[in-house]
């Protein structure tokens, strides 16, 4: 099989916060919550995504893109950024002119590239939703609601987390993802 070109890279946050820090409690990781964005587009069923998005020319690294995206989408800062999961999906190759292929009748037979999504486990350091900015806020297509779910198998199963590969990864690796934030990892 021929290698497909990487035409897009994204950085996404598996963003965890202690439920105790969000409310009142002990501050332990026993009650972690995952912060997601509930996307609702007109005429479509809602789905839940992790904060993040594509790399931009000003991003020197994928981690820089992650920090920029969580700032834009949540008005947030994150710490303890640890690579966790990579998902590779077919994505139209934009070609040299950037016009794209394979969509809306444009060159359906053209080679496809891939989008590589880098998922990082990280802790929420701070969040001020009034500081959200960027295209999702300035020119929204539908709604972008920030939600918290328990970081448990039941919590993840309670919403339609996309992509499905992330949902499967989280379901199979709750304990491992928690371990990525353990104090003795580094």
What does this structure look like?
This protein has 186 residues and is α+β, with helices and mostly antiparallel strands. The chain has a single domain (6-180), classed as Nucleoside Triphosphate Pyrophosphohydrolase (Alpha-Beta Complex), CATH 3.90.79.10. Helix content is 23%, strand content 37%. The chain has helices at residues 19-22, 62-74, 135-138, 153-157, 164-172, 174-180, and strands at 6-18, 32-40, 47-49, 52-54, 76-92, 112-127, 143-150. Strands 1, 2, 3, 4, 5, 6 and 7 form a seven-stranded mixed sheet that branches. The radius of gyration is 17 Å and the shape is globular. The termini are far apart. The model is unreliable at 21-28 and 97-109 (pLDDT under 50).
Percent helix range: 10-25%
Give me the Rg, rounded: 17 Å
- Which structural class should the secondary elements be placed in? alpha+beta
C-alpha end-to-end distance? 38 Å
**How is the biggest beta sheet arranged?**
7 strands, mixed
Domains (count): 1
Number of helices: 6
Average pLDDT number: 86
CATH topology: Nucleoside Triphosphate Pyrophosphohydrolase
* Poorly predicted runs of 5 or more residues: 21-28, 97-109
CATH hierarchy: architecture: Alpha-Beta Complex
- What shape does the CA trace take? globular
Q: What's the CATH first level? A: Alpha Beta
How many β-strand runs? Answer: 7
The CATH superfamily is known as Nucleoside Triphosphate Pyrophosphohydrolase
- How much of the polypeptide forms β-strand, as a percent range? 35-45%
SSE arrangement, N to C = EHEEEHEEHEHHH
């Amino acid at each position: 099989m021929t290698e497909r070109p990487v035409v897009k890279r994204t950085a996404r946050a598996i963003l965890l916060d202690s439920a105790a820090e969000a409310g009142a409690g002990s501050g332990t990781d026993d009650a972690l919550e995952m912060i997601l964005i509930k996307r609702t587009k007109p005429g479509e069923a809602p789905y839940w995504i992790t904060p993040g998005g594509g790399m931009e020319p000003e991003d020197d690294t994928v981690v820089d893109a992650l920090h920029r995206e969580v700032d834009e989408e949540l008005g947030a800062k994150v710490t303890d950024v640890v690579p966790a999961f990579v998902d590779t999906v077919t994505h139209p190759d934009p070609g040299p002119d950037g016009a794209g292929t394979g969509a809306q009748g444009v060159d359906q037979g053209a080679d496809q590239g891939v989008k590589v999504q880098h998922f990082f486990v990280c802790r929420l350091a701070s969040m001020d939703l009034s500081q959200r900015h960027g295209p999702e806020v300035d020119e929204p297509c539908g709604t972008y609601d920030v939600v918290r779910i328990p970081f448990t198998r039941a919590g993840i199963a309670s919403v339609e987390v996309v992509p499905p590969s992330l949902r499967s990864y989280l379901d199979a690796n709750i304990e491992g993802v928690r371990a990525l934030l353990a104090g003795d990892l580094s």
